[in-house]
């Protein structure tokens, strides 16, 4: 066992102040209640650690054995697991337990999190003429520059910088230390995590006799509705036109989106991915962690790129694409990688042999 | 068509308050004017979307067809495209249209951007004894520690932290939320984007019986003139000597520069690249996005490393170097990658066959 | 010679206000003093640049030649280098010169760095009911939310955000602009560099008919003692349980740690590495720069992963693992990579040839 398994006395992060009856959750989630609707639950936990005060979930048959041993008060399950869960006091049966669990986390978060107070913190710097919608909250030490427009119910976290003329849509939330440079427009119900930088200059220079000549980046950034952007992710402003992040896009942490990139609706990108300048990515794509897409490409809708793969040319058909060197023990890698450097030569030798043995 | 193409009603980001006559731009740029010098232009746009109020540019023959269909008011072109552009009302002819366009963006930016007001924002924290040059601007909530020296015309953005004794050169600009730790020296006319961290500790630990022993990082960071550093890029302080970024270097976003690295003049690195400790990179190199260079290497002047490639040994000659696994459909990759793990064995088998068939 | 070598007039970053006698350092470090204990030293320098006022170190025989030419006042050496160092005025002999040097840097840092003043900067925003231990320092423009608990001697840097209820252990230091979101617990004697974001939401969404359904991240982050976290590194909060970083872990810059990851004690990860969700990494592992580990894996204690390698399956045995495409001149790469796409076919052809030539 590694030390880490024992080290952290897990906080009971999901504990409600008051338990909730399972029947109430069934109604809320539109799931079929089986067993005792009066069963109280107090915590939301993974299947492996859910106890007699917890509600949990199992998405399919591969969890049947684990489910059989569970002592959870209530489980969210698909119809196929009714048998395996029948020993639990209460069950919520639904066609899509994972989406049902997702909606339950949203209800749970509302119970646990302190309600945000509308208003401008006295330490914030808000310029004259900023337009603040109803119920807006501006956190401590935040800076909102002239001409910014903040939609109703939006939250600007502590230490954020909202540049001159920036538009932030209704109910959009900026975690602490987000930077929105001038020329940025963020839609409604977005969530931007700490350290996000939107609208820094794209990387544009012309070669000149004395060194690089700066190409000023005169475009902006257009972000749709319901977009989530992970911590320390960067989205550069366009050179002349805007960089575009369409509605429903989900970006993880430490992602780089270069100038004039367009990302289609509901595309999701995992952490440390990067997209170079002017590439257009379709909708409902998934881009794996640390994957890279070079510039000036077009990626079709419904493309899935594996983690750590490099996309070097346009992908015109949906599909699953991969390009990674398989991991090996180092000594094996040394031998194989050395041979790889001669691969073209090996192919020539093989061809020669084939000629020789041809009758 | 992907959703993204239609989603964003492009702002007219480059629209001047008043149109400008083409003759004025020709004089400014030192380009040869052809056609009507009195032609007004109002926007700067890419060739594909430039309209009858726009100036645009085309760098070479591959744009001839697109140029033939353009309705732009004015185009910046090389001599070879004079024929193809002759139907436009005005043309600016120059040997290097891309550099000419770059200089035009600089003029354009000056027209569009609000002039920065010199002075210290009342919410900033500026320690006693800080030396501020003429025309310095310190943004809201910024923190400037004791002994810092800020050159004339420099701009310290809102929420920046300038550590004790840090030197910032004349006309250097820090975007919001830049951190310069003590021991940092930044030259003149640099531009550091939001989230840049200069002078955090290099990653240095000695193995000890009880775990890692911290090696305090006592060096600093020396940054030359005309350097640009992209958002959320990190440049660590040296262990004993300084980390050095020479003049004219351009670093994109989310780059990692480890302790005691030296980067030669006018080298450019694209986003997410990383250089490990004590490596020296020559001048006028280009390092592709997400490329990695391991520690303690020497890279010659004029080396070009492709995106996502790993440099594992010193490169003593200029040239173009690549090391990436080519992208494939996943099923093909699975077959080929499995075979790659046996590549050395295949070579042995080939050798045996060659012996056998030798007469 | 590259321009960078000449560009930076190195500051004398390690110069003490007053020289120190070598005998004092020998006592402090528990090293055997040879030569003149009264020898003064003023700077701590690498072997290559140490002069007659400097102390330096050499870890083993490979430095013998360089040591022979050194003019350093004092060298820290292993017994095997006593001969080679005998011409220097003073020598400190120890079984582990690198760890001895590490401890010396710690003493040196104490001499050079200004003592931090305890107290809360007047520009900081500290909520009611925050518990501050003795000697705590809260920097300018910092924000500390309700219910936070800051241990004795801890330092919260300028412009940091410490969320509601966050716990920061004794003598832990946050550099400027660190964000700790609610649900974060940091142990004692940790060091978090600028731009670190702890406790942003993990990347969790369920697919739904209308797009992605947010899975609220209800867990937190548990960080042990003596952990160091590099600039702009992100550690996401858990979905239900906590993300766990065990004591003694060292993380470099720009690292991504996803939700519910567990990292065992004394594991070190170099810059730009990333670990996807729910992976457990053992103790005393080393993960190379830009290496990636996919989600839901288990990595044994004592595993070493090379830079830029992708770990795609669990590693149950300690060892050194690598998976990177070797760098080549671009033209060679083009030939070999094209052949790699047909590797499985080559293997088939080889097999056919072997059949043919079988007697």
What would you say this structure looks like, in words?
The first copy, chain A, is α/β, with parallel strands linked by helices. Chain A folds into three domains: 11-112, Udp-n-acetylmuramoylalanyl-d-glutamate--2,6- Diaminopimelate Ligase, Chain: A, domain 1; 119-321, Hexapeptide repeat proteins (UDP N-Acetylglucosamine Acyltransferase, domain 1), CATH 2.160.10.10; 330-359. Chain A is 18% helix and 28% strand. The longest helix of chain A is centred in the first third of the chain and has 16 residues, at 97-112. Mean pLDDT of chain A is 95; it is low at 1-10. Chains A and B meet through strand 22, strand 23, strand 30, strand 33 and strand 38 of A and helix 1, helix 5, strand 40, helix 6 and helix 7 of B.
Give a short synopsis of this structure.
Three copies of one chain form a homotrimer. Chain A is flat, with a radius of gyration of 26 Å.
Specify the helix fraction band of chain A. 10-25%
Please state the oligomeric state of the protein chains shown: homotrimer
Rg of chain A, please?
26 Å
Instruction: Look at the structure and give the CATH class of the largest domain in chain A.
Output: Mainly Beta
Q: How many separate helices of chain A?
A: 7
Q: What fraction strand of chain A? A: 25-35%
* CATH topology label of the largest domain in chain A: UDP N-Acetylglucosamine Acyltransferase, domain 1
Largest sheet of chain A: 11 strands, parallel
Tell me which protein chains meet in the greatest interface and how many residues each side has. Answer: A-B, 95 and 84 residues
* Integer count of domains of chain A: 3
Superfamily at the CATH H level of the largest domain in chain A?
Hexapeptide repeat proteins
Low-pLDDT segments of chain A: 1-10
- Architecture of the largest domain in chain A, CATH level 2? 3 Solenoid
Distance between the termini of chain A: 61 Å
Q: What is the general shape of chain A?
A: flat
Mean pLDDT of chain A, to the nearest integer, reads: 95
Please provide the count of β strands of chain A.
40
